[in-house]
Amino acid sequence: MKLILSSCDFLNTNSRKVIINNINKKLEDCKVLFIPNEKDTNIDKHYNRLYKDGFTNKNNIYIYDENNTDKFKNLDLDIIYVGGGNTFATLNKIRKNNFDQELYTYISNGVIYIGGSCGAHIVTSNIKHVLNFEDNNIGITNYDGLNLFDGIIIPHYDSSREEVYKNLLEENKYKIYTLTNDESLVIVDNIIKKY
């Protein structure tokens, strides 16, 4: 299992470098399933973003559609990529049709997971602390993350999020990792490295 988690994924020079250094293929050769955030339905916008990220072979790109999840099962993938957006709505979108089970299968079979901000949050143990930064407009009450990562993450960490970090330390429920916009975590079979 390999997870590459950051605040800004390909939108930051440092995190982009970490991603590229931890993938054993050129991006243009990778088969990627991109799971857009909850509000973006413009397919061309996603293709353009992925092209800018380095995924230049359109035939290797799959854009997740929550209304047709069967189309995204049993694909031959190298990468699953979830960028930023509203954490609660994106997690709900994945859980809605039990696609979280597909993600577990893919990742346990060697597909690399790239998560930026929201994408980093959803694979953790719990997302309740995200209420401090984002609206839970859809009203989910189950704050459990996908539990692919033992702990929780505070992306975009700076002094404005320090109080949240301190409160979480006092609660002492989870391992807590902070990520500035320049930092990334790479988890390979439960071994965690911060870059």
Fold blueprint:
Layout: E1 2-6, H1 13-21, E2 32-35, H2 43-53, E3 61-63, E4 79-82, H3 87-96, H4 99-108, E5 112-116, H5 118-121, E6 152-154, H6 162-171, E7 176-178, E8 184-188, E9 191-194
Parallel strand pairs: 1-5, 2-3, 2-4, 4-5, 6-7
Antiparallel strand pairs: 1-8, 8-9
What would you say this structure looks like, in words?
There is one protein chain. The chain is built from 6 helices and 9 strands; from the N terminus they run E-H-E-H-E-E-H-H-E-H-E-H-E-E-E. With 195 residues, the chain is α/β, with parallel strands linked by helices. It is 28% helix and 18% strand. The relative contact order is 0.20. The chain has a 7-stranded mixed sheet with strand order 3-2-4-5-1-8-9, sandwiched between helices. Strands 6-7 form a two-stranded parallel ribbon. It is globular. It has helices spanning 13-21, 43-53, 87-96, 99-108, 118-121, 162-171; strands spanning 2-6, 32-35, 61-63, 79-82, 112-116, 152-154, 176-178, 184-188, 191-194.
> From N to C, what is the helix and strand string?
EHEHEEHHEHEHEEE
Q: Report the helical percentage.
A: 25-40%
Spatial strand arrangement across the major sheet = 3-2-4-5-1-8-9
- Gap between N and C termini, in Å? 18 Å
Write down how many β-strands occur, each being a DSSP E stretch of 2 or more residues.
9
Poorly predicted runs: none
Structural class: alpha/beta
The portion of residues forming beta strands comes to: 15-25%
Q: What radius of gyration results from the CA coordinates?
A: 16 Å
Give the mean pLDDT. Answer: 92
Number of helices: 6
Give the biggest beta sheet.
Answer: 7 strands, mixed
Regarding quaternary structure, what we see is: single chain
